[in-house]
């Protein structure tokens, strides 16, 4: 692109301040142009260091940008992102992309109708270590099963513990479920069926999947376990052995930069499909809803 992409940021919470804003401002292909949030003072505080405009409405922001990045609760994102897509703006979305499947379907349809680019910030998928791990798995093939353990006290304290949507019923599933399910799906083949799901004390989830080709996997997830450090481990196994992937510390900023690389390339080439686009978000939303239903 001859000029940096003008990006507006909707939201001014901890994730917007620590990842979105600096990432958009520092990337050579993007410029943080405008900020909108329903809390005007928070928008001013976020925008000032980057010399970005403060907008008083979503329409105001849409008139100033080429793309919109969202760092707001899922239900709010689904509502506002439909408007942004309808205005022809490319989208950077957070996971889950909506509060329910109906909202995710409306958003996916709006993106398809508008023909805009979209990417979901599935942090692990953009990390170099993850991409190398997945490439190695694909080259070897013939994996029989796998699983993930994601256990932390993230909702017991810290910058995201006060987030209402994360503290809602089943907050662990909505927050880290998309990351876990996405990576199992990418490693072992598309998830065809959620065979069982159970939620126990400490918001501890056990979910079992069947994949294309017959592989089986399971996810054990909780953000209300008082563990230090956080445990994040993915495994796959089969005739080629046992392979693991752990979480990389400090990787959110690097992953966001890698996502922006892909986002800029999509827009520059007129591409609207990507392994982590809004359709991926819809697939993951359906898995989340099925797990909730089975656990209930």
UniProtKB/TrEMBL annotation:
Q: Where is the Gfo/Idh/MocA-like oxidoreductase N-terminal domain?
A: 5-117
Give UniProt keywords alphabetically. Answer: Oxidoreductase
> Could you tell me which Pfam families the record lists for this protein?
GFO_IDH_MocA (PF01408), GFO_IDH_MocA_C3 (PF22725)
Start and end residues of each GFO/IDH/MocA-like oxidoreductase domain = 162-241
What protein name does the entry list? Answer: Dehydrogenase
According to its UniProt entry, this protein's organism is: Amycolatopsis viridis
